[in-house]
Amino acid sequence: MITLEEMKDELKKELPRFYEGIKDFQELIKVEGKELANLNNLIDDAVDQLFIETSTWGLARWEKVFGIITDESKPLDQRRSFVKSKIRGAGVTNVELVKEVAESWYNGEVEVIEEPSKVSIKFNSNYGVPSNLPDVQSALREILPAHLFVEFLYKYFLIGEIHNVKTLAEMETLTLDKFAGGA
Predict the structure, then answer these.
(1) Which superkingdom is the protein from (predicted)?
(2) Residues 111, 98: contact at Cβ < 8 Å?
(3) Which residue stretches of the chain are H helix?
(4) Cα 126 to Cα 120: distance, rounded to the nearest angstrom
(5) What's the whole-number mean pLDDT along residues 47-52?
C-alpha cells in the first residue's frame, strides 16, 4: 500500500526543480498524488484477488469457480483452505493426495494410514480436535471413494506426558480439550 506522501515524493522526482517553488504545482501534486495513490492501492487490491492466499472480497469468485457455496461467516483462512483443497483434489486419489488435502485444511502435519476398508487421518501437529473438522471431513469425503470408512485420530495430552514435565504455570495455559477425555 502506497501512502500519499510516498506518491507525492514520486511525482516530485518527475518534475523539473523550478516547479518546487510554485504553489499551484505543489497543490496539483497534492491532489494528483492522492488520486494516484488511491488508484495504485486499488490496483494492488485487485491483483491480490487473483491469488488464493491474498484474496479477500474476490474469494467468492474462487468459490464459485470450484462450485463451493460461499459462507461469509467462516474465517477467510478456512474458506481459502477449502478452495485449495478443491484444486488439489483433482485427479486420482492416493495417499499423497489425501495428505495434501487434509493438510491444506489442518495447517499442520497429517499422517495418512491406508488399510483395505478404511483410511485413518492422524493429526500430528496440534493437540485436540481441529476447529474446522467438519470442513476437513467434507473435503476428504469429496475425494475419497464412498466405500472407504474414514477414521480421524487426534493427539491429546496424557498425564504421563505432563507429570513432572510441565510447570504449573504451563499447565494453567492448557485447555481441557487438549487432554484425552477432556470436553
Answers:
(1) Bacteria
(2) no
(3) 4-14, 23-48, 59-65, 76-88, 95-106, 133-143, 159-162, 168-172
(4) 17
(5) 94
